[in-house]
Amino acid sequence: MRLGPPEGKKIVTAEELAAIMDQPRRVRALSQVLGNIGDGLNPVIDLYRPYVDGLARLPRDGRFLLVGNHTQSGAEVFLVSYYLRRELGVRVRPLAERSMGQARGFAKDLIAAYGGVVGHPDTARELMRHNETVLVFPGGGREIGKFKGEEYRLRWDGRSGFARVAIESNYPIVPVALVGGDDVYQSLFARDSTWGRLSQSIGERVSGRGDMTMPLVRGIGPTLIPRPQRMYLAFGEPISTAQPAGKSAATWLETVRHATRQSLEQSLANLQVVRAKDPFRRLNPLAWPHAVEPTALEPAAPEHG
Question: What is the pLDDT of residues 176-187, one digit of tens each?
Fold first, then answer.
């Protein structure tokens, strides 16, 4: 999920923009069902005990842009939406990857009911015009598939569209990091290995996009059954996008982008420190009483060159 124009489509029509906020009755009904299901999951989620830090930092009006990292599990989309509904009573509006915008029938309704819209500057502006809580992953789908050694690395490739739209709308940015999702599967090869290059070649032929390659992975043992992992979620301090007097637009854009990335990378490093010390990280029931809580968050050790 990232912010960019869908392939072959440079503009969004007025009708499509109107449908973002004025959804069909069937979509609204499905959205209500999804909300009820989410509320019913509270006891299950509490038993699973995700580590969640920073909810108190969230602006209470729900008017902000969440900028997160994708993982191999995809749990970040569900957990962020779930905890925002639980904490603030708002529905998060994820900006979906281009391919999701091509969905039809029930799949299309399901994405819309969950709040998803195709990631495009025009759709983001429309959501912000209505003070919606927006979620974006600048790395898009390319950040999901991780080769060996790429866990929890951002793959933004210079993208700054999210910062540009947030600045235009004077929308605060809240970085949100998830750790645990890249541990449900273990990648078997590095990107530059023989098997890694072969996987990229096959993926490009199948999808037409070399950046969407899915590496060879394993879960439990040699299977693709996901490995049980506790999830660690952290919401960072809100970042103001109000442009200071005397700052050029280009300089301020890079400042906001860099501050967002730096905050997100620091949170990812912090959470990995917490995870390494958590006896409940693999969801061992015997370790449940000793699960680390957010008060134990420690800063990551500084890197030495």
Answer: 999 999 999 999
